[in-house]
Amino acid sequence: MANQIYTQSVTVDGGAVRGIVDGDIARFLGIAYAAPPIRFELPRSPAPWDGVRDAVESGPAAPHRIGAFPMIDPTPLVGRGSDGGDGDYLRLNIWAPQGAEGAPVMVFIHGGGFVAGSKDAPVHDGSAFARSGIVCVAINYRMGVDGFLPVPGAPTNLGLRDMLFALDWVQRNIAGFGGAAANVTVFGESAGAMAIADLVTSPLAEGLFRRAIIQSGHGAMVREIGVAQRLVRKLAKVSRIVPDVEGFRSLSNEMMMDAVEKLAKPTARIDLRGDDGIEPVFGISRFIPVYGDDVLPEKPIDALRKGAGCDVEILIGTNAEEMNLYFVPSGVRRKIGGLLARWLLGKSLPDAGKALRAYGYKQKGVRPGEAMTRAMTDLVFRWPARQYAEAHQGKTWMYEFDWRSPACDGELGACHGIEMPFVFDTLACASGPKGLAGIDPPQALADRVHGIWAGFARDGAPPWPQFGAFRQVFQLAQGQAIHEPAMPAAAFLPE
């Protein structure tokens, strides 16, 4: 590293740090925004240090595993997994324009089903945002058992509390990196977007951000604490421990990840449906935020309708074929039969048969797996996002990512996560024979999408009308806003 040029030191909570000059941007990696977490305790400020720390190493991610994924390489989007290292993983990365002063700030929260992912996945590199005049921040947070299991006697929603702690750190420290604390946009994808959609309504988040970009997320993936505690008891039984704080503290990271994997299987016997008979995550993850505490006093959609978060400007959207990511590479969409499709959907939704028929099941030329994939795309992602946009009482714009990836023999399409390398302008890491974006994805579309995101962070004014009563949705690949009618999914989900 002798040839590296270091930045001037910046004083942050705990001490001073210095990063690396990379052309016209400054890069700071692995800054501790909190102390190493103590299991089932609130985040704490990092211990102070003497001298200047080099912020050039990313550090570990929260403990998690990345499963095998056929046909495509997920590593650029989610990383390689982590054993948690020395436990000092509540860190953040910053990319800033050289010499910036009062620049807009964007804080990214990664996805991964609340059980996987990290700030350091290659697709999340914030360099392009820095070159667009934005101070870009990406954070880690606690996941799985440590972050989203409401163990009796422990604080709830610790993963969300980590995010709040990081956002508060940004308010206090970002000016030193050239950012404007009064102009923060928080953005995220999948679980990160779900978390942001929740935090928009949280009384603990007031004043921490001005705008939010919610990519393939909404506020419906939450559970009542009582329902989520069924998961506490099941995990304790699987792990042969007492279902309390001390019982779970006795588990190593490895043991916890083993238990999480067991309960992730579709055959795991656990019922996480609410009183309405719906399992809000449709089996994608067992771990999600809960409501009924000080972070989320009520269901986010209900809070929105009462005016919560009305001062936050929101850009929200989904991809046209979200569930293709789960069902195309695995072969499920092509091979699954009608009885199994109905059984799988029926584990999460009443009237599963009617829902499948509404999406083409039993119509000539429509495979059961195709109907299930279309139905779940709308039920899990697209329709709840529209409900969120409609409920928000403030300024709200909606997009649809409609470019179809040619990966998986042309069948992957506009799947979950495909917008990420376009948003960050990191197409190179997601292209190629096993890349999510396939061979030679369009750079012009990355220029457009990245430009819209950066522009929203600057002034909160996307170049199309708000969602409103006319249900305007901007198709990113087509470059036009269209009126979108209600979806068949509306008949099967709560209003």
Describe this structure in words.
There is one protein chain. 29% of the residues lie in helices and 16% in strands. It is α/β, with parallel strands linked by helices and 495 residues long. The chain has an eleven-stranded mixed sheet, with helices on both faces. Strands 1-2-5 form a three-stranded mixed sheet, with no helix packed on it. Strands 11-12 form a two-stranded parallel ribbon. Helix 12 packs parallel to helix 14. The model has no long low-confidence stretch (mean pLDDT 96).
Poorly predicted parts: none
Q: Classify the secondary structure makeup into a structural class.
A: alpha/beta
Count all strands and give the number.
16
Spatial extent as radius of gyration: 22 Å
Largest sheet: 11 strands, mixed
Strand content: 15-25%
Distance between the termini: 57 Å
Number of continuous helical runs = 16
Mean pLDDT: 96
**Dominant shape:** globular
Strand ordering within the main sheet: 3-4-6-8-7-9-10-13-14-15-16
User: Which oligomerization state do the chains in this entry correspond to?
Assistant: single chain
- Helix content percent band: 25-40%
